[in-house]
Amino acid sequence: MDPAPFQEALGQARLALAQAEANLERSKSQLAGSRAALEAQLRAAEAQLQSAERRYQEGKALLEAGALAPLDLKALEAQYRQAQGAYENAKEALARLEREDDLRLLRLQVEAARLQVRQAERNLRESVVRAPFAGEVVEVYAKEGEFLGTGSRAFRLATTESLLAKVYLPPDQAAALTPETPFRLRQNGKEATARLLRKTDLPGQSRLVEVVLKPQVPLTPGPAEVRYRERLAEGVLLPAGALRAEEGKAFVYRVEGGKARRQEVRLLAQEGDRVAVEGLPEGALVVHPLPEGLREGDLVEVVR
């Protein structure tokens, strides 16, 4: 997965955390300076309240003695009530500072920013797809840039260290195999040698024997071509094009005295474009490829 978006999200989360921490520290410094000012305001308000209360009590006594007009007492009472309000306001401001309501909110913002950083770090770690075991990617199901939902397959991973090859052969062919039989496995342009690991004693339902091979170098899961040498027959080896079949019999044309001589042979085995025959002496010259219409006694010329 492309880590760039996750790295960018992590950078933004860290920046938001740094800003939240800076706001908290700035507020702490501001509140430390505000505490002294609020305490001074509270002391001043308390002194003013005490002075206003004293004047108000004295005015009440003067009013009873007839030395103060009722209107003047009303003014003293208003001053006293105003001093009470100022004192309560100063006390509430200091109490709010003591409760640290603003700091509590800022601390919550810092914790939220830290949580975002941890989430972004986890997303970045999860952007790297780690294999549960050492192996090789043998098949890819998605293209670069393609969106994959949860549970979708991106690729197939396989271990190649313990990979074996299975071949199913007829019982007679399997019986001829030995631990010394050399095998070659070909897959996707790669070729590796292999050795016989084991084979079953009895054929399965398909009437074939399971032969298990151990590659000498790691290959990938999937089909492969198995090659090994098998003795099919012992005879004279000829190109398949030198053989002509007629009425269930096989013939070749030998070159004797510049003429074609038809000779019957017995076909022992065929592998690809080569055949093994019996009934032909070693070193005999045969016509190859056989032209259409060649007959017994036709003149031929040997071209080397």
What's the total helix number?
4
Largest sheet: 5 strands, antiparallel
In whole angstroms, the N-to-C terminal distance is: 65 Å
Count of discrete domains: 3
Number of DSSP E strands: 12
Give the DSSP E fraction (strand runs of 2 or more residues). Answer: 15-25%
- The SSE order reads HHHEEEHEEEEEEEEE
Share of residues in helices: 40-55%
- Largest sheet: spatial strand order: 3-6-5-4-7
Poorly predicted regions are none
Estimate the mean pLDDT confidence. 84
The chain-level structural class is alpha+beta
Alpha carbon gyration radius: 52 Å
Shape: rod-shaped
Task: Describe this entry's structure for a reader.
- There is one protein chain.
- Strands 3-6-5-4-7 form a five-stranded antiparallel β-sheet.
- It has four helices and twelve strands.
- Strand 11 (259-271) and strand 12 (274-278) form a beta hairpin.
- The longest helix is centred in the N-terminal third of the chain and has 62 residues, at 4-65.
- It has three domains: 4-126; 165-228, no CATH class; 232-304, conserved putative lor/sdh protein from methanococcus maripaludis s2 fold (Beta Barrel).
- The relative contact order is 0.08.
- The mean pLDDT is 84.
- The protein has 304 residues and is α+β, with helices and mostly antiparallel strands.
- Helices cover 40% and strands 24% of the residues.
